[in-house]
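Thread title: Can someone regenerate the structure for this chain?

I was given the following input by a collaborator and told the matching structure tokens would be attached. They weren't. Posting the sequence so someone can regenerate them.
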Amino acid sequence: MRRDLGGVIFIDLRDRYGKTQVVFAPQHHEQTYEAAKALRSEYVISVTGKVERRPTGTENPDIPTGEVDVVITELAILNKAETPPFPIEDKVEANEETRLKYRYLDLRRPILQRNLLVRHRAYQITRAYYDKHNFIEVETPVLMKSTPEGARDFLVPSRFHSGKFYALPQSPQTYKQILMVAGYDRYFQIVKCFRDEDQRADRQLEFTQIDVEMSFADELDVQTTTEGLIAELWQQILHVRVEPPFSRMTYKDAMEKYGSDKPDTRFGLEFSDCSTAVANSGFRVFSETVKKGGVVAGFSVPGLASYTRNQLDGLTDYVKSLGAGGLVYMKVQADRIECSVEKFVAPEEVKAMANALKAKPGDLCLLVSGPWQKAYTILGALRLEMAERQKLIPEGKWNFLWVTDFPLLEYSEEEKRFVAVHHPFTSPKLEDVALLDSDPGKARARAYDLVLNGNEVAGGSIRIYDSTLQSKMFSLLGIGPDEAKSKFGFMLDAFKYGAPPHGGIAYGFDRMIMLMTGQSSIRDVIAFPKTSSGISLMDDSPSNVDQRQLDELHIRLKGPSTK
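Best answer:
Regenerated them for you:
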């Protein structure tokens, strides 16, 4: 930025260390002063001068160099620049597509430079921490065998082996387990992973994770080691003290209290189950739901009994958009309770529901009925919606939480088979192994997720290390012996040669840095991200390739789809 005040020219000189105000005046050097008149935004220059304290009253406390000027005696214009398509400053109104197209300019903005410096610091702290605790960093292959069980693989055709493909790793899962078999008892890696899945603000096609595995470890060993790194990152980067051990909550409790397996515990609005109060209700929506094993549950919002009918209709439309049949509400007054279904529900049942929700005069109670998973998930979304509306989420609070005891499997109606909730190598809890033969859907996993303010920042499990149990797991997932041998034979064979008990965790590094820097999108903490549709606007990838390249790979492109 250049400011010509008539007789004195001020320039804000910016590099990645910050801004410094430099001054050109004819009394200091006439020729240099005249040359400075040609300077424009984003020119690359070299200057020589004398550092002087600014006159009293002209200091700028907002920048580290705000108490000094550099009075210039020599100027060299190293490179000129065209006018950039948007200002190089933190608050910029340019849309994200423009910023991503000119990412090399966007990355000059101080906020993005700060974000990447935080990322750099986190890399160094992570490596030092794990090295201090006797972990070794091992690089695993980027070209690996395709083992599709979860997200879609990115495939890479082989020129040497016509018709065969490598896959880019969704995670180094199989490799890190094999490293445990190989005797490397403490492994970590800051690794790039790839998943061909739909994009979100906190998801990219390629992402970075801190990958960790430990032999002869149980859940507490992994969690304690993880908490140590988190404490160091927050202390050294944010100067915030977070105190291990972190709180723990089972998956079942998280769903029944907050309607999410990654609950935001910075505010209340916890749920209560009202099923018992209405199990024999004449209102069949309630009683039939309970009879079928579903729930009637809800929560109360303090001070919202004044909500208008129009506002409540809006909430009803919101939960219906999530799949609910409707929304039941109660306005608790000092002398009565107004209930949206009071024509169908006995007064004592209304009172019992209000008591179950611990409602007080002036509160608004919101209830949903339905199957356990569906009802609580809808309530979870409604809870977050009400917290946003009422501004109940405090800033500057870091609530870490371990969520444990996840289901091992869930049944996919679409595929008509069980699928792994985490991945096929997750061990069932030892006391639930027998359920794999009698009632697999009730088996719990030795899995754990680390949640921060409603965001999953890390997840892991104790692994299966016995080839017989691993084969049984594959069978439950509909992976027969031949398919298991084809996809995972190398791993099953490794387990036959003395595999130790082991477990680990993977941190979502991009998401963690996003939260640490207060950003709303991981694209703001990645140097060269893709758009929500997976395109790099700066270098125009993905792009077409020459027919010669396709021929070398024995690939023929189909015509446009007619669907």
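The CA atoms of residues 19 and 62 lie 10 Å apart.
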